[in-house]
Amino acid sequence: MKLHSLLKVLPLTKAPRENPDINSITNDTRKIEPGALFICIKGHQTDGHQFANAAVAKGAVAVLAEKKVAVEAPVILVPDTKRAMAVLADEFYGHPTQRLNLIGITGTNGKTTTSMMIENIFRDAGKKTGLIGTLHIKIGDEKLETKNTTPDNIVLQQTFAHMVEEGVHTVAMEVSSHALIQGRVNGCDFDVAVFTNLSQDHLDYHETMEEYKRAKGLLFSRLGNIYDRNKPKFAVINADDPAGPYFVKETSAHVVTYGIDQPAEFSAGNIQMSVDGASFTLHSPEGKQEVKLRLMGKFSVYNALAAITTAYVANIPLQSAIHSLEQLEGIPGRFEAVNAGQDFTVIVDYAHTPDSLENVLKTIQQFAKKRIFTVVGCGGDRDRTKRPLMAKVACVYSTNPIFTSDNPRTEDPSAILADMEAGVQDQRYKVIPDRKEAIQTAIREAKQGDVVLIAGKGHETYQIIGEKVIDFDDRLVAMKAIEEL
Ligand SMILES: CC(=O)N[C@H]1[C@@H](OP(=O)(O)OP(=O)(O)OC[C@H]2O[C@@H](n3ccc(=O)[nH]c3=O)[C@H](O)[C@@H]2O)O[C@H](CO)[C@@H](O)[C@@H]1O[C@H](C)C(=O)N[C@@H](C)C(=O)N[C@H](CCC(=O)O)C(=O)O
Ligand SMILES: Nc1ncnc2c1ncn2[C@@H]1O[C@H](COP(=O)(O)OP(=O)(O)OP(=O)(O)O)[C@@H](O)[C@H]1O
Ligand SMILES: N[C@H](CCC[C@H](N)C(=O)O)C(=O)O
Ligand SMILES: [Mg+2]
């Protein structure tokens, strides 16, 4: 594509004279290919403008910037390169989201689970699916690694274009609050936006719950008919969450609600919990239907309701959606059992917020016959104020809490543990900073009928200590500890 043709989508007062061919666009010198347009982004760590020279040296043929940069290539100046990047990426890749049924899922907890449920439902209904989220990007059955839950505009639009080429029909995509604030999904034409729930997390970044909620709200306020005014848009909202009405108010799309306690268009009654999973009666505009999940806990019922409601607004027959959910055996690292023939239960779960930890522990309490060991830590360089709350939850709902490390990153692990300890009065807990040792201790001490919950890292296969990333998988460490008993 010629530079001038690409730049037509920007309201420029002055375009450069030169008109090179643009083969790719990027905001990262580590990904430059000859013929690229390099976009300078002011980031949280560094300023992309300082890499403009390196970009040109590596083959960039034009540079988009917010301020003058002295380079041997045409420079296009715009007031906000992040906003321009969203528009350019959408244009460069041919507006792929117009050709996809794009479902965005936001909320503090349950995004990965709900998006995988939605992906399964659409796939089982015969549609080719795409998935973008914490675990990976998936195009049909092909899995690609991803750094962020919600990638930046360029990676996103490139991925969508690839999906269109591969004949994908529906994409289920997790949309994080960071992505919404940073404009990573600007230019995406969502068809359905789903709200799971809102509770404390990421206050290191958003500072207040109001700001965090406002960030999530952007998915709903921007759910407009940006391309095709006749295409209906839907907001699928959890009616039980206190923040639900805020998102309803933010959107001009059709609102469809789901819930358990408050009146909602899709609701679950007669909820039964067993060790095999949660079952419930679905009440919907199509009447009553029985649903028997293989997933545990009330939170799984919420995720299932969100997925069923989404399927309904996209015209998937309810019976097909229910059948698909009933086949789903589990999501990696979410309430995942580790079994090596031991006579106690070991569960690895990604709960890394006070609310998710409480939900998981309440679910465990429903079937635990004896003691509950909770091995838990809190991430470094992340919300400090959730640490005492998570520690408190671990102590309230388990008999044997063990505080340990979870990706300390650049923080001192003992300082993180001290923040956790500040949240508890009683001395019932143990502090074992080394995560492997903490898991081994819980497993060695557990007796017949006990439950060991290893919380916080779920599917993660690493531990981040300082700048180093070392191999670490709770499931493998637990398995080995059981085998060594
Ligand atoms: C705090 C934060 O959100 N940071 C995100 C942000 O990076 P940044 O602003 O720090 O970028 P930077 O490192 O300062 O670089 C500025 C610019 O210089 C460029 N650069 C930099 C170095 C270089 O050698 N060459 C170069 O060109 C960079 O490509 C960039 O364009 O933009 C990057 C691209 O989109 C993201 O990868 C990065 O996510 C970091 C890795 C991260 O950890 N983010 C977390 C907090 C996050 O976003 N999490 C959410 C999920 C949370 C949840 O829901 O639980 C997510 O969506 O992943
Ligand atoms: N609807 C829910 N309500 C509360 N807690 C939930 C819900 N669904 C899942 N959880 C808990 O939250 C944990 C994380 O779930 P999941 O990975 O689906 O959420 P997420 O929103 O994608 O998280 P992240 O923001 O880190 O990507 C699960 O391991 C479980 O403990
Ligand atoms: N998306 C979340 C994941 C947290 C997982 C936990 N293991 C941690 O490292 O804090 C975050 O980046 O805050
Ligand atoms: Mg996720």
Through-space gap between termini:
63 Å
* CATH architecture descriptor text of the largest domain: 3-Layer(aba) Sandwich
What's the helix count?
16
Strand order of the largest sheet: 8-7-6-9-5-10-11-12-13-14-15
Give the rounded overall mean pLDDT.
96
CATH class of the largest domain: Alpha Beta
Shape: globular
- Bound compounds: ligand UAG, adenosine-5'-triphosphate, 2,6-diaminopimelic acid, magnesium ion
Q: What's the total count of β strands?
A: 23
C-alpha-based Rg, rounded: 24 Å
Overall tally of structural domains: 3
The helix fraction, in percent, is 25-40%
Enzyme class: ligase
Subcellular location: Cytoplasm
Domain Mur ligase central: 105-310
Binding site for meso-2,6-diaminopimelate: 382, 406-409, 456, 460
